[in-house]
Amino acid sequence: xxxxxxxxxxxxxxxxxxxxxxxxxxxxxxxxxxxxxxxxxxxxxxxxxxxxxxxxxxxxxxxxxxxxxxxxxxxxxxxxxxxxxxxxxxxxxxxxxxxxxxxxxxxxxxxxxxxxxxxxxxxxxxxxxxxxxxxxxxxxxxxxxxxxxxxxxxxxxxxxxxxxxxxxxxxxxxxxxxxxxxxxxxxxxxxxxxxxxxxxxxxxxxxxxxxxxxxxxxxxxxxxxxxxxxxxxxxxxxxxxxxxxxxxxxxxxxxxxxxxxxxxxxxxxxxxxxxxxxxxxxxxxxxxxxxxxxxxxxxxxxxxxxxxxxxxxxxxxxxxxxxxxxxxxxxxxxxxxxxxxxxxxxxxxxxxxxxxxxxxxxxxxxxxxxxxxxxxxxxxxxxxxxxxxxxxxxxxxxxxx
Length: 401
Known about the structure:
Elements lengths: L4 E9 L2 E2 L1 H9 L5 E3 L11 E3 L4 H4 L4 H4 L4 H17 L11 E6 L5 H14 L8 H4 L4 H10 L5 E4 L5 H14 L4 E8 L4 H7 L30 E8 L10 E10 L11 H12 L8 E3 L6 H15 L5 E3 L12 H15 L1 E2 L15 E2 L5 E2 L4 E8 L3 E8 L4
Helix pairs in contact: 4-7, 10-11
């Protein structure tokens, strides 16, 4: 299968808008996690990562703003940034040779909540007709396809945090089947009251009242994650069309599913790591850094650490989780990790994991903490685990001369 090249990055993150601002903030260890301004103080979740992108979202045409959710507004804005970064004008390309694949998790929850409130408070005549499409998981894929005239293979993946990586498989397949380029990745806007209420029963969200304890993966004080919004949209192109451009290649991908709890079988993450490395045609010794899923749930951290030790040996590879600066963005989170890993390849620097002052020695990880580690990065492994048992892994390699 062809290894497409990523030529454009569109980043909307709680600690930076656009990949340059985001990268500078990430290397500096600047966090975007802060007390939530939405939905207010009556909810047990006190901290999260909010995106301050009103200037970009204001560029979404008014007609589309009223038809779509904030989650899709973020996708519009990120796609505009990605296309501009790639130097691509969709109008100049054959419409059936452009593909779109996005990931979704909570869907258009804010839009849906508003319409439900109208239904119960005012009656069915006050529910907008766009309710039927704005909440739907495929809304971002469909709206991006329509807006940019991309009528090639289109898909949506609903595998929670793993989804951003799963779009890589769809993009690679579309390009291998003849598409010139593919739009991939995901965004998330899961900070509405309805969305937060849906997240709480899973027991993975940290409800601490201390900002310093909000999100500490692989730490002895780990007690869950905090949610965030934003994500990344990326542009992948055929290698022959991207000569002289690009951040890196989508060299390998794999996905597995965890066995039924209580079955006695091991989690599927190790198999996923090994399969992605094999698919990329590299060895574990060639992997320069791992961008971890970093659940910050003790048992999940232990599972991930065990898989990394089994794959690379104790302290065998630098591991980082820059999402400690933005929160878990669910469908947008692993897409943002893809963008971050590509920036690490370009700039020869591994961004830090912040706030983890008491790493659990039982994990036996070489965790990059507090400050970046400057070293060549030619091969990066990105991991994501979605609630419900999804495991995905992507291997990125430096672009060929």
